[in-house]
Amino acid sequence: MKEHRMSGRTAQNINVWLYRNESLIALAKTQDLSLSGMFIKTNVLLFPKDSCLEIVFDNKEKTKRYRIPARVVHRSLQGVGVTLENPKTEESLEIKRLLAKPHDTATNDIKLGKRSS
Q1: SS3 for 80?
Q2: 86: which DSSP letter?
Q3: Where are the domains of the chain?
Q4: Which of 17, 18, 34, 103 matches a 20 to 30 Å C-alpha distance to 110?
Q5: Residues 6+ positions from 67 with CB-CB distance below 8 Å
Q6: 57 has which bridge partners?
Q7: Could you give the CA distance from residue 94 to residue 92 in angstroms, rounded to a whole number?
Q8: Are 81 and 37 in contact (CB under 8 A)?
Q9: What is the pLDDT of residues 8-46, one digit of tens each?
Q10: Gap between the Cα atoms of 37 and 74, Å rounded
Q11: CATH T-level assignment (fold) for domain 10-100
């Protein structure tokens, strides 16, 4: 299968909150990330192909939260691949920062409404 990504993906382990229609659907982690999308390790049954969702993530310092609309473009047993839809400039800059250095949050717990220490 030929890749159709606009930019290459980098292995990244980032906590994300997944929303649909303003409701929290899942807490998950990314497997990889690019300027135009990401693969998210999650229950694939929650996200049909072509479904729209919002991805929420914190900056590296855990001082600011970003919300980006996305569309599911790929599904596998391991999770879903999404393309980011029109991220704002500030969100794109933060993704570039995350890509600049490997980001591993494996030791941080995901807590709804609370930032990890």
Answers
A1: strand
A2: S
A3: 10-100
A4: 34
A5: 19, 54, 55, 56
A6: 66
A7: 5
A8: yes
A9: 778 889 999 999 999 999 999 999 999 999 999 998 888
A10: 11
A11: Thrombin, subunit H (2.40.10)
Note the helical H segments in 1-117: 89-100
User: Residue with structure tokens 């807590």?
Assistant: 111
* Interval 40-98: pLDDT, tens: 999 888 899 999 999 999 998 889 999 999 999 999 999 999 999 999 999 999 999 88
Strands 23-33 and 52-58: unpaired
- Which pair of structure tokens corresponds to residue 55? 């991805």
In this structure, how many other beta carbons lie within 10 angstroms of the beta carbon of residue 82? 26
In total, the chain counts a number of residues equal to 117
Please report the beta strands in 4-78, taking only residues with DSSP state E, as ranges in sequence order. 10-11, 15-20, 23-33, 37-41, 52-58, 65-76
Q: Do 15 and 9 touch, CB atoms closer than 8 A?
A: no
- Bridge partners (DSSP) of residue 102 are none
